[in-house]
Amino acid sequence: MSVFIVRRSLQAVLVLFVMSMLVFIGVYAIGNPIDILINPLADQQEREHAIAALGLDRPMWTQYLAFLAGALRGDLGNSFVHNTSALRLILERMPATLELAIAAMVIAIVLGIPLGLWAGLKPNTAAGRTIMAGSILGFSLPTFWVGLMLIMVFSVMLGWLPSNGRGPTTLLFGVPVSFLSLEGWRHLILPATNLALFKLALLIRLTRAGTREALLQDYVKFARAKGLTNARVIGVHVLRNILIPIVTVIGLEFGSVIAFAIVTETVFAWPGMGKLLIDSINLLDRPIIVAYLLVIVFMFIVINLLVDILYSALDPRVRLSEAKG
Amino acid sequence: METPFRRMLSDFLSSPTAVFGLVLLAAILTVAIAAPFISPQNPYDLAQLDVMDGRLPPGAKTDGGTFWLGTDDQGRDMLSAIFYGLRISLTVGVVSTVVALALGLALGLAAAYLGGRTETVIMRIADIQLSFPAILIALILLAVLGQGMLKIIAALVTVQWAYYARTVRSAALVEKRKEYIEAARCLALPPSRIVFRHLLPNCLPPLIVVATVQVAAAIALEATLSFLGLGLPITEPSLGLLIANGYQYLLSGKYWISFFPGVALLLTIVSINLVADQLRDVLNPRLQR
Fold first, then answer.
1. Interface test with B, best of A18, A135, A145, A283 (most B CBs within 10 A)
2. Where are the alpha helices (H) located in chain B, listed in sequence order?
3. CA A178 from centre of chain
4. Å from A158 to nearest chain B CA?
5. Which one, of B41, B37, B38, lies nearest residue B53 by Cα?
6. Contact residues on chain B for A296, CB-CB shorter than 8 A
7. What is the phi/psi pair of residue B188, to 5°?
8. Cα A73 off chain centre by
9. Which of A105-109, A308-312, B30-34, B191-195 has the highest mean pLDDT?
10. Which end of chain A, N or C, is more open, meaning fewer C-beta atoms within 10 Å of its C-beta?
C-alpha cells in the first residue's frame, strides 16, 4: 500500500511539473508576456521597469526557473484590478466554490443512488422508464440554461428564492459558510441544484447499469437461494458491489463539478473562484487567470491521487497490478 | 439478401424513441439549412429591425407581421434569430467534430499501429488532457486566444481529439490481433493499405457513436462558452449568445429572449443524443441478435 502511495505521489508531482511547464509556455511563450503580465494602462517608463523587474529580457529557461521558484513560494503575481496577491484572492474565494460543489455532490448522491437503484431493479416499469428518460434530459440540458430557468421560475415567477449572491455567511472554524443559516440555505439551494443535475443524471445511469449487471451475478442468486430478505440482498450484496465504481466516479467527478461551478457561479453571481475567473477574463486581469489555472491543476492532481488511493483501498486487485507493473 | 446496412437500418428503426429523435434532428437540420428562405426576417439586416418593436412578448402583432416568439431588445424577431442561431451552432459543432475526428483518428491509428514510443507519447498526452474537464481546457484556451469562429473551433478540436484517439486506439488494438490483419501482412501488403483498407473500416463503428455524442457535446460546450462571453462574437450569434442576451431581461419577467433559444438548443441536443443512444446499440456487435 505505501509503495503504491509513494509511486502515485511521485507521478502526481511529475504531472504537476509538466502542467506548470505548459502553463508557462502558454502564458510566456505563445502569448506576449508583456501584454499578459504588465498592466496595459502602464506608461512606457513603468513598462520598461516592469520588464526588467519581471526578468522578461532574460533567456527563457531562467524565466521558467524564476516562475517556478515564485510558484513554489506561493507567489503567482499580483492582480491588476485588486492590486493584491492573485493567489490570496483565489484562496479567499475557494470556500464558496467548495461549499457549492459539495452541496451539489450531496444532492446528486442522495437522489441519484436510490433513483438509479430503483430504475435498475424495475427497469420495465413506468417509474423506471421515467427515471431513465429524466436522466437523458439531465444529460442534454445545458447547465447555464437550466440555471436561468430556475431563476425564472423560483425567483421571478414564484418569488420564493433569491436569484443571486451567497447571502449572509457564518464563520465555521474561521471559514465563511452559508449552510448554517436559513438565509444561507435559501441562497445555496438553487445554484447547488443546478450544478447537481448533470451529476445526478450520471449517477442514476451508473447505479442503474451496475444494479442490472449485479442482479445477474451468481452471488445474488446464491443470496436469494439462501432465503435472505430482498432488503438484505439489495442493501448489502448488490449495493456493496456496485459502490466501488460509484465511489471512483464521485471522486473524479468532484473535480469536474468544481470546473462546472464556473458556469453556475456566473449565472447565480455566486462569489466563488469560477466567477472570479470569468470576471478576470473579462477585465483582462491575467495574473488571476494564471493563478487560477495553477490552483485548479493542483486541486485536480490531488483529487485524482486521493481517488486512486481510495480505489486501491476498496479494491485490492488494483493495488496488486500496479505494484507489479 | 440482407446487407449489413439494411440490418442496421431496420435495427435502428425498431425503436420509436430513436425514430422520433431522427425525425426531430432532420427537421432541425432542414430549418438550419433553409433559414434564409423560411425566416420571417433577416435578423442581421439592421434595415429590417425597428427598435420600437423591442422586447415584444410572443405572439405580438405589428404592421410588420406577427412575432410568434417575441422580439429581443433590438426588435429582432426571435424565431428568425433562432433559425440563424441554429445554423451557427450546428456549423461549429459539426466542423469541430469532423476536424477533431480526423486528427484523433490519425493519432489513434498511429499509436495503435506503430506502438512503442509514439504510442506512449500520444496516449500520455490524451490521458493527461482527459483528466481535466473539457470546459476548463476550452475556457483557458479561449482566454488566451480571444474570440472568433475559428478560435472556438480550434478550442473544441483541442478538447475533443483525445476521445477519438483513445476510442480508435483501443478498437485498433483489438482488430490488429485478428487473423485478417495477419493475413494481410502475410500477403506483404504495404502498411498504408493494411491501415487504411483493413484496419480503419473495422474501427469505425465505435467511432461513429463517439462522434455523434460529441457533436451534441460540442454544441452544448460552444453555447456555454458563448454564454460566458468567451465564444463567438456578437456579430455571429449562436444559440448560446442569444440566451446570454436575454439573461439581463430575465429578472424583469421577459423570459422569451432566453427561453426559446434554450428550447431550440435543448431539442437539438436531445435529438442527437437519442440517435446516438440507438446507434450505440445497433453498432454494438455484442448486442446483435
1. A145
2. 4-13, 16-33, 35-38, 78-114, 116-130, 134-145, 149-176, 179-186, 191-193, 200-227, 239-250, 256-283
3. 19
4. 11
5. B41
6. 136
7. 60, 35
8. 25
9. A105-109
10. C
CB of B16 within 8 Å of any CB in chain A? no
- In this predicted complex, what is the ipTM? 0.79
| Burial class (CB within 10 angstroms; exposed 0-12, middle 13-18, buried 19+) of A148 | buried
* Contact partners, residue B56, CB within 8 Å, separation at least 6: B62, B67, B70, B71, B75
Q: Is residue B136 within 8 Å of A292, Cβ to Cβ?
A: no
User: Does B65 touch chain A if contact means CB atoms closer than 8 Å?
Assistant: no
Distance CA B202, CA B175 (A): 7
Option in A18, A30, A156 nearest B251 (CB) = A156
Per-residue pLDDT at B82 exceeds 80:
yes
Q: Which of A89, A85, A53 is nearest to A71 (CA)?
A: A85
A19: left (phi over 0), alpha (psi -120 to 50) or beta: alpha
* pLDDT recorded at residue B289: 44
Nearest beta carbon to residue A140 from set B136, B251, B269: B269
Q: How far is B5 from chain A (nearest CA, A)?
A: 27
Q: Which residue has the cell 405572439?
A: B59
pLDDT for the residue numbered A325: 40
Q: From the CB of residue A229, how many other CB atoms can be counted at a distance below 10 Å?
A: 10
Each residue of B196-247: pLDDT tens digit? 888 888 888 888 888 888 898 899 898 888 888 887 777 778 888 888 887 8
Query: Any chain A CB within 8 A of the CB of B269?
Result: yes
Q: How far apart are CA B85 and CA B18, in angstroms?
A: 25
Cα–Cα distances (Å) from B120 to A321, B69, B199, in that order, read: 19, 53, 20
Where is mean pLDDT largest: A261-265, B32-36, B208-212?
A261-265
Instruction: Assess contact for A102 and A96: CB atoms under 8 A.
Output: no
